[in-house]
Fold each of these.
Amino acid sequence: MLKDEKAVVVFSGGQDSTTCLFWALKQFKEVEVVTFDYNQRHSLEIECAKNIANELGVRHHILDMSLLNQLAPNALTRNDIEVKEGEDGELPSTFVPGRNLLFISFAGVLASQVGAKHLVTGVCETDFSGYPDCRDIFIKSLNVTLNLSMDTEFVIHTPLMWLDKAETWQLADELDALEFVREKTLTCYNGIIADGCGECPSCLLRKKGLEKYLSTREAL
């Protein structure tokens, strides 16, 4: 039974990872979270993650991943690179090469030290902007690789993998966390908590999903 086991949630303090945290708290006996500091554009992301972990009473690990900033210049690590959608089949400027590969791998190392065999991540192939490291096939491949590399039996959970943003809001609501997620998470590429700037791609996706879910809920 999962209720008797322990999980580590890859946690940014955003909508998706916070929804996954609430999901994990319902599924597992013990939950810890890990946030990665890669000198991202908005250090407020880390403060937001700290505050949420503290409020929910979960142990919070912050790991230094500044090397990723050196390796992968992009709109999330450089102020002089514009946040924009991909054009002509290109990836968005917010894609950080290797991010989920490194984050989940290091989360696995941490999990092995704290006695957890479950890893939870908010990656999603439905509203994923084309990021290759959000695909289900990548997660399954990485799960096998992690288990082989450490001779263990990790299970990577992706509660949002096949949900669009409206369904992610629905899941938060079902977990009695919709208002918490709406008011206390940071998804905005411009570093504004809650509903954000309302203009960046991340805010537009979040807002569209929320409006769709709320209109559906009102119709019931």
Amino acid sequence: MSDEAPWLVVGLGNPGREYAGNRHNVGFMVADLLASRTGGKFGRAKRAQAEAAEGRLGFPNGHSGPRLLLLKPLTYMNLSGAPVVALSQFFKIPVTQVIAVHDELDVPFGQVRAKMGGGEGGHNGLRSMSKSLATKEYARVRFGIGRPPGRQDPADYVLSDFSGAERKELDFLVDRAADMVEAIVQEGVEWAQNKYHGV
């Protein structure tokens, strides 16, 4: 693992106020929380169509923890890979230090899961990242949103807001997802799985 390159944490979502509360935008929500935890402030990235923030784990107690580069692509979900690869190349970030945070239909709401590599499960943001990075071997924090009720189209479901009942738990779950990102950075995916998957 590189001591000098930051970790690239990619919150997947769609830009624009109309998408802000969508299930598909939970990656942005986690990235925003991590920015507030690490002392980062989002601004327009110079080298990519994205908003980016830099911070450190351990902020504000000595700034001694690993550096994080938080990224919210502004390309819309199906083109998320271009800004990811642009910044990972510029900062010389190895794919082993890339974490995608995304909504996951195959995980029930209320659960957050860590994973290394694997398929994209039909998620266009992950598909774009894998294509641009030319590998699927990056870490993921999978925020469970569950399957749509009845016959609702999954595409409509992910672009709808969380229900009132879900919103009561949302802040807690976004907090847990941010904890999981920090655990992966500091201890690795397997350690994060052991700590959080039984919860």
